[in-house]
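Hi D.,

Good news: the full-assembly prediction came through. Inputs first.
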Amino acid sequence: MDEEEIEKVVLAYLKKKGLKQTELALQEEQQAKNNADPDAAKQVVSFSEPDNIPEQYEDGYCKLRSWTYSSLDLYKHELLRILYPVFVHCFMDLVAKGHLQEARAFFNKFREDHEMMHLRDLQKLEGVLSPSHLEEMEFAHSLRQSKVNIKICQYSYDLMMQYLHKTQSITMLGIINEHINFQVSPGQPISLSDDTEVVTLVGSGQDTANLINQKEIHWGLLEDSVEERLEKTLLSDPEKAEGETKEGESEENKKRSMEGGKQGTSSKKLKKDKVVGAAAKAARTEGSVSAAPRVKSELSLPVIPTEVEYSILDDLRNRVQLSNVALPSVSFYTFLNSHNGLNCSSISHDGSLVAGGFSDSSLKVWDMALLGQQTESSILPEENEAARSVPGTNSGKRSYSLYRGHSGPIYSAAFSPFGDFLLSSSSDSTIRLWSTKLNANLVCYKGHNYPVWDVQFSPAGHYFASSSHDRTARIWSMDRIQPLRIMAGHLSDVDCVQWHANCNYIATGSSDKTVRLWDVQSGECVRIFIGHRSMILSLAMSPDGRYMASGDEDGTIMMWDLSSGRCVTPLVGHTSCVWTLDYSCEGSLLASGSADCTVKLWDVTSSTRVPKAEEIKTGSTTNRLRSLKTLPTKSTPVYAVKFSRRNLLFAAGPISAKGLATY
Amino acid sequence: MSSSNVNNSTSNILVVGKESIQVIAQKIGNNNLSPDIFPSLAADVEYRLREIMQEAIKCMHHSKRTILTSEDVDFALHLRNLEPIYGFGSGDTYKFKKAAAHKDLFYIDDKQVDFKNVMKAPISKTPQDTSVVSNWLAVEGVQPATPETTLFEALASPSDNKKADYKDDEIPADVKYPVKHVLSRELQLYFEKITELTVGRSDSILFKEALLSLATDSGLHPLVPYFTYFIGDEVMRNSKSFHLLFALMRLVRSLLQNPHLHIEPYLHQLMPSIMTCLIGKTLSHKLSDNHWELRNYAALLVSSICRRYGHAYHTLQPRVTKTLLHNFLDPSKTMAQQYGAICALASIGPSVVGFIVLPNLEPYLQLIEPEMQVEKQKNETKRYEAWRVYGALLHAVGQCVYKKLKLIPSPLSPPTCTPWKVNAKIMTTMANKRKASTDNMMQQPPLKRVTTEGSMGINTANSFPVNIQRATGGYSTSLGGSDVGLSSMPRHLPTENVLGINGKKDDRAKKLPSSSTQALKEVMDAGQFLPLLTENFGESMLPFIPTPLSNIFL
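Then the structure:
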């Protein structure tokens, strides 16, 4: 049997490579050898007729499909996973061999089977119409170059092999051998819920991703941050001293691998429980205490001016404690008369400034305080309610400051942490730095070659990151007009970028459906997060530095554990693009804004309390993150959400006349 | 390619046929292409198109839109260093028209614009500048009921607590339809349909059906306040359109008939409307409209209401009668109004007639007598009205008498008569009435009066047989039926009554053969005021005297 299999593989290989002579020679040899075997003869006959290749593919796939669907329930879902790569490669093989009509017919015939899971891939693939397209199209090319990893249990594997040999589906066998890399595991089939990893066919392959994800990352918060100093002042009373020593103990765990991370979590858990048990004030610092292993900044960070520091300390003291029972107040900034031209919106940390980037290259900044709006000066809703009046009373003058300088639609705007600078990125491939004090352009950063989709200030200011259509993300500092680092590796546009809380990492989301984490100092990719089924539109980092949330075009939000590179849980609820995400200041809530005109609040703590080790062991990723609240707006898609330091949530979006009817 | 949904643009299998390539090739003047290259060109064109669309969708997403625009496509072309397609950038949505005879061919319907018109057209307004307003989407996780946020809650929450949140805008928008929050859609429709029928098509069969439904259906109770309001409102506004008023009264009747409705709380609102239809000064524009009928109808309604709810509302009947009496006795009121009052009094019951009408009968008749005579009242309509009133009066009094007489057990025909309850009280009051024609003597103890009046009755009974005799001659068939009396009255009365008034009654009374038996004693009691009546009405009173009695005297 083994010998026969080898022969088959050889035959298939020769056939594929078009080595007709060798093939024939081998066939003759074989014929001579197995003259008595009628099956083998048939086999050879089938090879010698190149005309019926399309039928072979279609027939083979069709048979495999019906066999799979009628297989044992227990193993069915594992076997079904094989169908998709086989389908895709059958199609591409047909195209590559020039059977375009047949390829299309084949594609359309079985397309429905995979539409639910792989709609976006199929949409891309259906455009492939000639062998040259296969080479040209990155997605198809990478698919053909690499193998797909499929985890499968021993019995399923045996079943399949048995079937393929019995039916002499040489074509199918060839495809499976060529493009699928089975990771056969002994024992029971893998549970259904775990197949998020299988659904995405990634060009670079799971192996490289796994390899990259082995690298260690230090997601602890920065030493000597303002928060920490505040913490220390609070810890001055003896009761809290204990907490600090605990913290010291866990410093040993600073350098650790993935396994080390698990240990750390368990010890952290203990400590966390203690602190929670302590006085109410301690709860405020819980977030940072739990992420105890502090790291040194790899960048030289700017010094925070003392008066700014005081205001931050003040904000921290006045912070409203949020949890799944204490939801935030949400102040919504609605853009009126934007004439469908608003591309992005940004809100400063205290909510006093709102920026809007427009498709007519203009950047407009509204000072909400000047408009008779009490925003941040008091969080009391009553007072704010009273101040809620229609602005624009200074009708003679514009109610905003207009920043002109770009020569293309503005795709992103970002305020510096203290609100004195504003960055904007545009389709003219430049990034501009504006001063909100002077209302003037300070610097124009040129470096990208294509539209800059996103720009973000680092949490400490001074440094910023940008992402572009040129498939790179870049790190800049305000004082240099050249980028400091270029992060290359994404297979498609880098659509969004976000800084890690400790400024040592940035995360980027791309149209290749992956999120990557990059080390700022070395410029290396340290994590690849695979699981999204469509383009990534938004990213957010938890304030404790442990988790990351990403939102995609379909409305799915995924929460990732940075240290393991695994998805904690997908958050399903939005029905359209998730434009924006933000964590509350102590990390207990996640806010998301979407094109479906809602702001959703998600409970993050309920999932993270479960020890990570246990979760990995059981392998169950049941949906423990729950949607706490859906806040519908009046037909206003939400472009930006932002928690202020005092945990007041700001959201912004343009009111659309058509509203929900547009979808 | 202007604005098409993303999903549509990508999920439809877009096939660029080789024919399309051929057409395009011809269009750009390249006719000598070999047909072999068309299919491969077509495939490539399709691939490029998809590529452009993919880039365009990226641009769309980064502009945070979910609708693809022509700008996005232009921008995608720009990214590929291609020239944009000019002429589609206006931002308007294009209307694509299907080309006749080709099922998949579309073109943009581009109108020819006259240059002059463009020049003449006023300059369009500058678009409003962008502004930002802020509002609370949630306060501590709870959405406040502000106009900006209550997109979904608005419909569910009652208008009251919403009003409080309105600060400075949109206040009047909400108060307009309070119905919306209380009534179901079905009931609203029902109400609308009924009111529409009442106002517009009250003579249709459908309206009858509607009335039937109103009178029988359960579950209409939520509508009662709306109907009451509707009726009141319509009566007030259209107090002279006869047909509408009649339709409204029929509506009232149906409402009253419906056993499922709890209409008492709304009676005080309904009564004025009914009273208007009863004693309104003019109820129609045209003479041809039979407003008498309407008044009769309303009178019946009043009486039925008094009968049904009189016990629950003790002030109801007194108030009604007071109003009626006022109308009846006020000489300044028109004949029609007086007619209505009399009708209603009559229908309320004989006792009321006894109380109110009989004492005032004589002076009243004197008042209208000249109006009825051809010589004195030349105006035909006035005279007709007077006769009408006279008829009503006659009917009222006659019915009253009939009721009284019916109470008397007839000795000769016991089987036909159900056992009569002799109501002593009524009899006394009746008796008293005769005597105290001008003043009230109600304080006397009833029992005593019965006995005293009894003897008096014998004397007065003399006139009785005479009436009967005449009755046999004049009206052999019409006996006591109130309806018949009413309908026949206008036609018969004039001649008969002229005679009656000519003072023949005295000798008639004398001719009487007094063959009174013991049994007749009570008849006499009841009939004691008959002289008064015959004095005033003469023979026309006869139909109201029950047959058994007339038989006796024959």
